[in-house]
Design brief:
Layout: E1 24-29, H1 33-50, E2 67-74, E3 81-90, E4 104-113, H2 123-137, E5 140-148, H3 152-157, E6 160-168, E7 171-178, E8 193-196, H4 197-200
Parallel strand pairs: 4-5
Antiparallel strand pairs: 1-2, 1-8, 2-3, 3-4, 5-7, 6-7
Length: 201
């Protein structure tokens, strides 16, 4: 089984952020360079600076073909800002011809939320939702992630199950599988899902 890293730090650490009730967050597939740059910056903050898993940069060969997802904050009188990210990709061993063999395994990895937005509580869950739902629309039949053990309860609440436990990068992880029946296909991932901050703040 291919090993990829997922870390969910939605609620752990970070100071309290005051949210503008007129602001909104949209979770969507990244489509512009500044969104990708913002996503990579958050990943460096989480996986290099905070967790020390990687020394300088967490990017790898998977990024060459993975699809980045971003959570973008839109606030009055401010430029849009990436506050969360995840990536999805098909397993290298899955069939490459969707027309003749649509069955495929997908992975989610590098899930991270900016430290000052972890108290928001819905950003990570919405990133997971779009990750699985958009892959489902592309023929995904199995969606997996390697989840840090302390975050397994969050994934269980989101209809994932543990397949096995493992040590990865020196940390306890769960190999988890999403229940695709709980994630209807999303055929418009560049539009994505909006988060109502008035309900989430």
């Amino acid at each position: 089984m291919r090993r990829v890293l997922v870390a969910v730090l939605v609620r752990k650490g970070g100071g309290m952020t005051t949210f503008d009730t007129e602001a909104g967050i949209v979770v969507r597939w990244a489509r512009e360079a500044w969104e990708r740059d913002g996503a990579y910056a958050i990943r460096r903050d989480v996986f290099c600076e905070e967790q020390g898993i990687f020394e300088h940069d967490d990017r790898d060969a998977i990024d060459d073909h993975a699809q980045l997802l971003v959570a973008v904050l839109h606030a009055p009188n401010a430029a849009p800002r990436v506050v969360g990210t995840v990536r999805i990709h098909r397993d290298a061993n899955s069939a490459t011809d969707l027309a003749t063999n649509p069955a495929s395994t997908w992975y989610g990895s590098r899930l991270a939320v900016s430290a000052d937005f972890r108290r928001h509580g819905r950003i990570g869950a919405t990133l997971i939702r779009l990750a699985v739902s958009s892959a489902h629309a592309l023929g995904c039949t199995t969606f997996l992630a390697h989840v840090q053990a302390q975050n397994a309860p969050l994934f269980r609440r989101l209809h994932w199950r543990t397949i096995e436990e493992e040590i990865l990068f020196g940390r306890a992880h769960h190999v988890m599988e999403a229940d695709l029946a709980q994630y209807p296909p999303c055929a418009a991932p560049y539009e994505g899902f909006a988060i109502d901050q008035r309900r989430a703040a």
